[in-house]
Amino acid sequence: MVAMSGGIDSTVAALMLHEQGYEVVGITMKTWDYASAGGSKKETGCCNLDSFNDARAAAVHHGFPHFILDIRDEFGDFVIDNFVDEYLAGRTPNPCVMCNTHIKWKALLKRANAMDCAFIATGHYAKVREENGRHVISKGLDETKDQSYVLWGLPQELLGRTLLPLGGFRKTEIRQMAHDFGYPELAKKSESYEICFVPDNDYRGFLKRRVDGLEERLNGGYFVDRTGRILGKHKGYPFYTVGQRKGLDIALGKPVFVTEIVPETNTVVLGDEEDLNRSEMQVGKINMIKYDHIPEGMESIVKIRYKDKGTLATLHPNASGVGVHFYEDAKGVAPGQSAVFYENEDVIGGGIITRYASMLPQ
Q1: Is 183 helix (H, G, I), strand (E, B) or coil?
Q2: Tens of pLDDT along 63-99?
Q3: What amino acid positions are annotated as catalytic residues?
Q4: 189-196 contacts at long range (C-beta below 8 A, 24 or more positions apart)
Q5: Distance separating the N- and C-terminal Cα atoms of the chain
Q6: Can you tell me the distance from the alpha carbon of 48 to that of 53, in angstroms, rounded to the nearest whole number?
Q7: How far is residue 228's CA from residue 222's CA, in Å, rounded to a whole number?
Q8: H or E element in which residue 283 lies
Q9: Does the structure show a pLDDT above 90 at 30?
């Protein structure tokens, strides 16, 4: 069973497996109906009719079945509620990780079992293999497209049924394959990096529409500096993220960044770029991939964002998850984001950043 979004990567993945002799069933998942969010922009990305039609056309042309799977109820209850709750808690969520971990793979496997499919497959640029009785995720060959970061949350039982056929290829090769399969238009199709349920990229507008009276309730909180000195008023702490520089609507005579968010007092801390540096952090909700546990003091490259190159650190398991101590300060550690631990190319495991030391006076 292949998850087909209608884009180049998942389409080529399905056609590759079909060519290799697998009996393929294509599935396109409807996760979100953007019209219900009250946004002004039409649906884009993976949940629009054109994408459904593109996926179905490829399947029909190559002689394998295709189905549209409506998982809006499964998706909305968890992913969207989590997205809103995290912002209201002063954190920066990663809904794509949550969706992969809790919704998409489980939804795929449930239908795969019902249709006697041995494996599920996606168009992610990553690899999965079995080693020492565990199923290990590693980076895709194309470092610029590697998506291992967003797969850290998958449990072993799902990884054991997962195929990632694009992991050993570069994006340029996949574009050429699309041409060779007779789909030159796919090679030119633009890629969407938006959150599927916020296709206009205006998460603040989404929160306002989702939570009645949010702006009125939280407007008028204070920007402060690291000493606690009031700098001005803001529009409400959920509308800011750690590391943000633009759109602050405050003039201080120099560039400033959001360095901390304190939801309890509706406070947003501003500082210089170097104030974003953190020497340590705490990570919770740990999921182990390569090993069944992390030994005390294990060295790892730790990524705190999808496009982060990673920072060398030591890992210290504790009652709340894993404490991370960086050898060199990491910039822009944001509670709510994923932290993924790497050993060379392999994912050791990962979790959700829960906290770091506050710079405000206690």
Answers
A1: coil
A2: 999 999 888 888 877 889 999 999 999 999 999 898 8
A3: 99, 196
A4: 189/7, 189/8, 191/7, 191/8, 192/7, 192/44, 192/45, 192/46, 194/44, 194/45, 195/83, 195/95, 195/96, 196/31, 196/32, 196/45, 196/46, 196/47
A5: 54
A6: 9
A7: 10
A8: strand 277-288
A9: no
Please determine, for residue 199, whether its predicted confidence score (pLDDT) is greater than 80.
Answer: no
pLDDT of res. 34: 57
Report yes or no: 32 and 45 within 8 Å, Cβ to Cβ. Answer: no
CB–CB of 313/327 below 8 Å?
yes
Tell me the residue length of the chain.
Answer: 362
If we measure between CA atoms, which residue out of 161, 119, 164 comes closest to residue 146? Answer: 164
Token pair in block for residue 27: 């599935």
Which CATH class, in words, describes the domain spanning 2-188? Answer: alpha beta
CB 148 within 8 A of CB 140: yes
pLDDT of amino acid 135: 98
pLDDT for the residue numbered 175: 93
**Residue 52 is inside which H or E element, if any?**
helix 49-61
CATH class of 218-271: mainly beta
Q: Give domain limits for the chain.
A: 2-188, 218-271, 278-355
Distance between CA 261 and CA 346 in Å, rounded? 33
Q: What SS3 class is residue 76? A: helix
Whole-structure pTM over 0.90, yes or no?
yes
d(CA 39, CA 46): 16
Residue written as tokens 């494996």?
119
Tokens at 51, concatenated: 């994408």
Comparing CA positions, the residue from 159, 180, 189 lying closest to residue 347 is 159
Q: Does domain 278-355 have CATH number 2.40.50.100?
A: no
Give residue for tokens 């180049």.
8
- Token readout for 182 is 């007779």
